[in-house]
Amino acid sequence: MAADSPLDAYSAIVTAVAADLTPRVASLRVGRGSRSHAESIGSAVAYTTDGFLLTNAHVVGAAPGGTALFSDGTSSPFSVVGADRLSDLAVVRAGSATPPPAELGEADDLVVGQLVVAVGSPLGLAGSVTAGVVSALGRSLPTRSGSAAALIEDVIQTDASLNPGNSGGALADSRARVVGINTAVAGVGLGLAVPINATTRRIISALMQHGRVRRAYLGIVSVPTPLPAWLRARAGRGEGLRVAEIVPGGPAARAGLRAGDILVSAAGRPVTTAQDLQRLMFAEAIGRPLEITVLRNGALVDVIAEPAELAAA
User: Fold this and answer.
1) DSSP designation for 215
2) How far is Cα 256 from Cα 252, in angstroms, rounded to an integer?
3) Residue of 122, 29, 129, 36 whose CA lies nearest to 75
4) Rounded Cα distance, 59 and 42, in Å
5) What number of other Cβ atoms are within 10 A of residue 232's Cβ?
6) Spatial contact of 248 and 278, defined as CB atoms under 8 Å apart
7) 147, 247 Cβ separation under 8 angstroms
8) Catalytic residue among 58, 75, 159, 174
């Protein structure tokens, strides 16, 4: 086989990504309740030069901290800075020196079929590396925190196998840029990763600064629906969001939104999916007027709502 064969080129890319990221991915040992020993249940990615690491919320659970072990044999105690179960992201901080941080990429630039590499560090399998392709984009992963439910938007689906303990590890592109944090196994040969994009960067920043994410809510249940032809031509898109249910006494109900309304825009931005609304529901939206345009009885109607704060679970 020629040295410059496609298989060799593929191998060279995977090898380079593994060499770059393996030192930057830690194995997390997290204390559980009253048990006297710590249990390794996941991985974490070095995020900053001063000891912050990214992982999954389900990896740290309710634990206050644990121990991070790196591929060079060093270890460090860590404390949990903040965890957000609705995005399944968490930030922890090591108490001593950590490897240089991984470079972050942009998940919104991924395309189906693109090569990705999953790097994790389950205890005893430091540097666990698998490769595959992006098999689907735009998937939604249901999550729940107490009574609050949400969707992790734009989840990355890949056929790069995830080993037990890989949760919280890195999903990287061919240039070793972290485009996702591995979160779940979707089925045989399929894994899911929380994307690194503008929305998750905001979540990570809030966790680092405040230890939690403040969210707003409107109190509606919605489903995508086709727009009528005349509005489709005017809006330049084919779908809106039909209000299927209004939470009694919630912000949407108080604003006069009704079941059957079709949301066309919010804050001047097009609304075609539930994720379009979720992107607006951060701390700055709480208690502030939000202009929503809906289609009602064949006419466009402007409604002003004031999102309220979603109670922490």
Assistant:
1) B
2) 6
3) 29
4) 6
5) 14
6) no
7) no
8) 58
- 4 catalytic per annotation: no
CB atoms within 10 A of CB 91: 26
Active site annotation includes 167: yes
What are the structural domains, with CATH classification, of the chain? 6-94 (2.40.10.10), 107-197 (2.40.10.10), 216-309 (2.30.42.10)
Q: Which of 20, 88, 154, 276 is catalytic?
A: 88
Label residues 52-74 b or e (16+ Cβ within 10 Å = b).
bbbbbbbbbbebebbbbbbbeee
Local confidence pLDDT in tens for the 313 residues of the chain: 455 677 788 899 999 999 999 999 999 998 765 554 556 589 999 999 999 999 999 999 989 999 999 998 899 999 999 999 888 999 999 999 999 999 999 998 999 999 999 999 876 556 789 999 999 887 777 666 555 555 566 789 999 888 778 899 999 999 999 999 999 776 667 889 999 998 899 999 999 999 999 889 899 888 889 999 999 999 899 999 999 999 899 999 999 999 999 999 999 999 998 778 888 888 889 999 999 999 999 999 999 999 999 876 5
Pairing of strands 148-158, 128-145: antiparallel
Q: Do 18 and 117 meet the contact criterion of CB atoms below 8 Å apart? A: yes
CA 163 – CA 186 distance, rounded (Å): 12
The residue from 40, 87, 121, 167 that is catalytic is 167
The answer to whether residue 58 is catalytic is: yes
